[in-house]
Design goal:
single chain, 230 residues, globular
């Protein structure tokens, strides 16, 4: 028994032109009432959510300061990461300084390092000796070396800004510029931690975004697990 197969005819050129004409008409429609309504909605949403974000950020700042006074630096840094994420998204600046960082030496317990993109010194580790081993694994967060919105993960293989999105281990600020880079931290450390052995004594080791300019106005922050050993 034979089965007949009916092939659908391709749309005619006239129909295709008509479809594009309708789409163009809709996209170019004169809709001032709709435009005003949409703009009013967006403005109302921003007006309604801004106080909520402001209150949340202020409470986070109080919590960060409480942890700082109690010398709970890891907890303070965790709260600061949330502050950075919300303030970058909402475009709200929160008064107050980053929580102080303790000097981390070989043999100290593993800690979570929150590394802000807008600080030339990033996260300060402190003085380390030749042979000390820095081990890092990505926890979360995004940043960028320019703009207002953090979009890049330093642990991702492909990023919008390429190598500028990477985390580096380096020397602290040198005069007005970032200190020399010791090593660029590779990607996929969340799955496989990266270890770097210092080849010399370094008095001021830092973790920072791979930005070699002296204008640090970068959005976002990232968090890594950090361990120093020998």
């Amino acid at each position: 028994m034979k089965h007949s197969v009916t092939l659908s005819r391709p749309p005619s050129l006239t129909l295709i032109v008509l479809m594009f004409s309708v789409v163009a008409t809709l996209s170019n429609a004169d809709t001032p009432e709709f435009d005003r309504l949409r703009d009013s909605y967006k403005a109302a949403m921003e007006k309604a959510t801004k106080p909520l974000n402001q209150t949340y950020l202020e409470e986070l700042a109080k919590l960060r300061d409480m942890y700082t006074r109690a010398a709970k630096l890891e907890a303070a840094n965790t709260v600061q990461a949330e502050i950075d994420a919300i303030s970058s998204k909402a475009g709200i600046q929160v008064p107050g300084k980053q929580p102080p960082q303790a000097v981390i030496t070989a043999g100290a317990p593993e800690t979570q390092a929150v590394i802000p993109a807008n600080d030339v010194n990033g996260f300060k580790i402190g003085p380390l000796k030749k042979g000390d081993v820095i081990t890092l694994s990505y926890v979360g967060g995004k940043w960028k070396d320019h703009g207002k919105v953090p979009t890049d993960s330093p642990d991702a293989e492909f990023t919008e800004t390429g190598e500028k999105a990477r985390l580096v281990i380096g020397h602290g600020r040198y005069r007005t510029k970032p200190g020399p880079v010791l090593v660029t931290v590779p990607t996929r450390t969340a799955a496989k931690p990266f270890s770097y052995v210092l080849l010399e004594d370094v008095p001021n080791v830092v973790l920072r975004i791979n930005d070699d300019t002296d204008d640090y106005d970068n959005p976002g922050s990232v968090t890594y697990k950090l361990k120093i050993s020998r």
